[in-house]
Sequence to fold (356 residues):
Amino acid sequence: MDKPAEKRITVFRVDELALELAKRLPAVMNSSAPGALTQDQLNALQNDPQFMELGGNLYFAKLFHYIVNLTHTGNDTQNQSFQIDSDADFQLLFLLSTQTSSSLSIQVTEGSAGGLAWQSAAVNILNFCGSAQNPFPAGLIPQLMPKKRSYKVTTIDSSGAANTVQVDFWGYKLYPAAMAAQLGALPSSS
Amino acid sequence: MINPWTQGRVPGVRMNPTLGGWLVKRGLASAGWTLPQWVRLSLQGAHLYWYQFPELVLAAGETQLTRITVSEDFWLVAIMSHESVTIAGTGSMRAQIYEDQQTYKYSKYGSNKGNFAGNALEPGLNKIPHFIPAGSPVNCRVQNLSGTLSNTVDVCMFGYSGWWRD
Fold:
């Protein structure tokens, strides 16, 4: 399960890798093509708070919410799948939810039936999701949800009454830094 | 003083709060009450995971044991719980967690809910995650502090599993 030592990014190597990639900006990642930005634009880009480094790669992070809605009639189980958009990987930052009743448990699995689960058993919704005011920081260690991967959210109601649930995966779409212009994030040259 | 948001970073590349535990209510955007950056970097690639202890339905004043086995190396970041009964002050249950393999107890005696577990809204994070090796059974002994009501108690451990991503 462990990565080989030479592949693992440690605190000792992350600077070295990030700096190496930073030098190639704004060329397409891992490309030898020359950059299209002036030095001023490059400086502005590096001051943009949406510009971030993660695991030695450079990205534009754009705020995004993946939303799942489920409606219970009472004492029932519902599930809903969602898929990460194909335009960007998603970095999960917070888990949020609203529900009529907290007599509700939740589980998240990856892919289709039998996919890897995020938990050993269904977890009470209040131990899984926070709110916008008090969000649950699931992404303390950055959690990448790869583009095109699907996830299944299952909720189990035990309140016995109608329960309307919304689960919110709040985070950032990570676009390669070289896509800044397409995202409208290219700094002005004037 | 080391600034955990800039120490170890690449000059000119801004550190982004997306790596942090940004607890809005406490107004924190940095490491005061969250995992320091060196911890987050060391665990990079580990996958979020919840170990959910089997739910307990406790009669008034009753104590029961519940247990899970950690299947992968696990770094415990927060213990959270939910009870069907609310008691102001102490909370409606008291619990103690201990590991078989190391006979390691998380507290000297049973700890009241209010001192023992948060929830996803206010999780109370371990700044230095507690490591539990793969294969360890973890026990949780829970006492219902209500003398009159049955109490349904869910306890879970949130953290990061050695389920590494490539």
Remarks:
- The CA atoms of residues 6 and 144 of chain A lie 21 Å apart.
- The longest strand of chain A covers residues 57-72.
- The radius of gyration of chain A is 20 Å.
